[in-house]
Amino acid sequence: MPPVAPMLAKAAKSLPEAGEMLYEPKWDGFRGIVFRDGDEVELGSRSEKPLTRYFPEVVAAVRDQLPAKVVLDGEIVIAGAEGLDFEALLQRIHPADSRVRRLAVETPASFVAFDILALGDRDLRARPFTERRALLVEALAGVQPPVHVTPCTIDRDVATDWFHRFEGAGLDGVIAKPAGLAYKEGDRAMVKVKHERTADCVVAGFRWHKSGPVVGSLLLGLYDGGGALHHVGVAAAFTMDRRRALVEELSPYRAEHDDSRFDGRAPGVHSRWNAGRDLSFEPLRPELVCEVAYDHLEGRRFRHATQFRRWRPDREPASCTYAQLDTAVPEELAHVFGAGLP
Predict the structure, then answer these.
(1) Which is catalytic among the residues 10, 13, 26, 210?
(2) DSSP 188-218
(3) Are residues 308 and 183 both part of a single domain?
(4) Per-residue confidence (pLDDT) for residue 148, from 0 to 100
(5) What is the residue range of 305's domain?
(6) Peptide bond between residue 3 and the one before it cis (omega within 30 degrees of 0)
(7) What is the dihedral of CA 167, 200, 271, 11, to 10 degrees?
(8) Is the dihedral of CA 216, 27, 310, 10 positive or negative?
(9) Residue 13 is among the residues annotated as catalytic for this protein
């Protein structure tokens, strides 16, 4: 019965070699635990909150195709023209049912299964992963889109190839699972290896931390070919001592006027996910450059928060352009869905 806390992964720099491992692509979507008991279907999120009402097309496919009594772990994704489209996925979390149902037709979601927790009356969480994988493939044999079984391989070289080749499809790395791994709710029992690159960005603003007058996050910008500065993301992972030091470091660059300095998609004032969250920021003159680490770019923005590496006083802000970024060549999702299936 829901809710179930999904098993998580800890980060690593490279794919593990020791022991018997199974490797899978790391999907970039909403983690989803699917519960089906006859006509009753529930989609649970990573935070154990229901996603059911936001993805009626997935619910219908689960009811039509899956075994009558089953619990699956997987990812809800939307495949766009150039790979996985996380922005389209975010648009689905909306209070208006009419909008949700319209988008279910315009930008339909898929469910990619990568583990099975229960089948019929059997609780499979204590079984080794190799056994669960075999049962997953057997239980979902013959499923059709929008339901998929994730590719899986025991060959580390194949997984390494996936890591590089599938990035253009929007996948953000590879997951490694020990062959004998039981399903451990909420534990970081798996290993994830994600893409990481660095970029030099203009710091054009900052937000205060919720705890008080220390810096919460840096607002990052990149120039396009026409010279417009676009907000591309934030750097926010700092110790409290570092947050205090940043106040003094940024002080000489505080802008005199309430000018965002950003063109195009500027930082918002209100959060669509949390009405009480203040997203206002303090503008800075666009003269500071910092190096950040990022995993991948989605459209014109970094997909996740970046990691601050260092200040770059040797770089001119005007040199911080999109041209410096390494963009992966798109890979057709059909190749990903079909790769490595038993």
Answers:
(1) 26
(2) EEEEEEE--EEEEEEEEEEEE-TTSSSEEEE
(3) no
(4) 96
(5) 197-324
(6) yes
(7) 50
(8) positive
(9) no
pLDDT in tens, 209-251: 988 899 999 999 999 989 999 999 999 999 999 999 999 999 9
Q: How much is the pLDDT for 167?
A: 82
Q: Which of 194, 224, 245 is the last residue of a domain?
A: 194
- Shared domain for 63 and 174, answered yes or no, is yes
Task: Kindly report the CATH number assigned to the domain that includes residue 151.
Answer: 3.30.470.30
pLDDT-flagged residues of the chain (< 70): 256-260, 264-279, 326-327, 340-342
Amino acid at 146: P
User: Which residues are bridge partners to 205 per DSSP?
Assistant: 219, 283
Q: Dmax over Cα atoms in the chain, in whole Å?
A: 66
Same domain, yes or no: 247 and 293:
yes
Q: Which residues contact 70 (CB under 8 A, 6 or more apart)?
A: 34, 36, 116, 118, 119, 120, 139
pLDDT value at residue 257: 59
pLDDT of residue 32: 94
pLDDT of res. 298: 78
118-146 pLDDT per residue, tens: 999 999 999 999 999 999 999 999 899 99
Domain of residue 312, CATH code: 2.40.50.140
What pLDDT is stored for residue 258 in this prediction? 54
Backbone angles phi, psi at 130, to 5 degrees: -60, -40
Task: Give the chain's radius of gyration (CA, Å).
Answer: 22
What gap in Å lies between CA 289 and CA 280, rounded to an integer?
21
- CA–CA distances in Å: residue 151 to residues 249, 290, 335: 48, 38, 10
Please state, in angstroms and rounded to a whole number, the distance separating the CA atoms of residues 90 and 150.
22
Distance CA 175, CA 188 (A): 12
Compute the distance between CA of residue 131 and CA of residue 179 in angstroms, rounded to an integer: 9
Distance CA 46, CA 290 (A): 33
